[in-house]
Automatic annotation (TrEMBL):
Its cofactor is Mg(2+). The lineage of its organism: Bacteria, Bacillati, Cyanobacteriota, Cyanophyceae, Nostocales. CDD domains: IMPase (cd01639). This is Inositol-1-monophosphatase. Belongs to the inositol monophosphatase superfamily.
Length: 269
């Protein structure tokens, strides 16, 4: 078994275990929902319990690796070339309202490059997995991006950062324009599932600003292994901590990139 396959299997074990925690807490966290300083930026007992389970499994198997987890921050050996980017509950707002669109997202970066990704939606029991060179799967069956090649025939998905009230650098202009230029724009509320849905062809493209590495690390390799493209808004190399991402089936990538650049000068990178 290759190392990547081992990493993939341990990430899968962690994501499935965390998914059990999320299903157990669902509908029972009302007394344990707090805001993390910004209106609407929630954290629940489930986020913390899920993260605890994941950290225990990753640390047990890979004590030398470094970790970036949403609720705990940086942990472990920060000089390691292996970095686990962990979102224990992606879609907390949905979860707190029992809106069934949330997931566990676990990505592994090797020398800064996403190589392994697992995204698990426990409510729908959908397990998305990928590793560099090993392909992308949904519930263990291979998946591929869509073949839509015209923006006017595409369905897109996006999201809005928690600081959208505080900054003009929000996503509103892009959302309006692209709603007119496409068959629709969805706002799912879980960035990792947005990327998983690009990977399996349910949507044709996804863009977002104000996003963190733990939101996208797993989804990036998933989209790439499913045949899609992931870049910065301008089509250049993606910096995972830049806060922005453009991921598509590849066929609409240039047109969506150009539109994002035209719509708002603030998008021009
Ligand atoms: C959020 C979700 C949402 C996205 C936000 C993220 P969280 O993650 O992925 O879809 O629009 O930017 O912060 O806080 O629910 O893990
Ligand atoms: Ca998230
Ligand atoms: Ca989260
Ligand atoms: Ca959060």
């Amino acid at each position: 078994m290759t190392n990547l396959q081992i990493f993939l299997d341990i990430a899968t074990e962690a994501a499935l275990s965390a998914g059990v925690v999320l299903q157990d807490y669902l509908g029972k966290v009302e007394d344990a929902i707090t805001e993390k300083g910004r209106p609407g930026d929630l954290v629940t007992a489930a986020d913390k319990a899920s993260e605890k389970v994941i950290l225990e499994i990753i640390n047990r198997h890979f004590p030398q690796h470094s970790i970036l987890a949403e609720e705990s921050g940086k942990l472990g050996n920060q000089t390691s070339e292996y970095l686990w980017a962990i979102d224990p509950l992606d879609g907390t707002t949905n979860y707190a309202h029992q809106y069934p669109c949330f997931a566990v997202s676990i990505g592994l970066l090797i020398q800064g490059v996403p190589k392994v990704g697992v995204i698990y939606d426990p409510f729908h029991n959908e397990l998305f997995r990928a590793a560099a060179g090993l392909g992308a799967t949904r519930n263990r069956r291979p998946i591929k991006v869509s073949q839509t090649s015209e923006l006017s025939k595409s369905l897109l998905v996006t999201g809005f950062a928690y600081d959208r009230w505080e900054t003009k650098d929000n996503n509103y202009a892009e959302f309006c324009h692209l709603t007119h230029l496409t068959q629709g724009v969805r706002r799912g509320g879980s960035a990792s599932l947005d990327l998983a849905y690009v990977a399996c062809g349910r949507v044709d493209g996804y863009w977002e600003r104000g996003i963190a590495p733990w939101d996208i690390a797993a989804g990036i390799i998933l989209v790439q292994e499913a045949g899609g493209q992931v870049t910065a808004y301008n089509g250049g190399d993606l910096q995972i901590d830049s806060g922005r991402i453009l991921a598509t089936n590849g066929y609409i990538h240039n047109s969506l990139s150009q539109k994002l650049m035209q719509i708002s000068p603030l998008s021009a990178w």
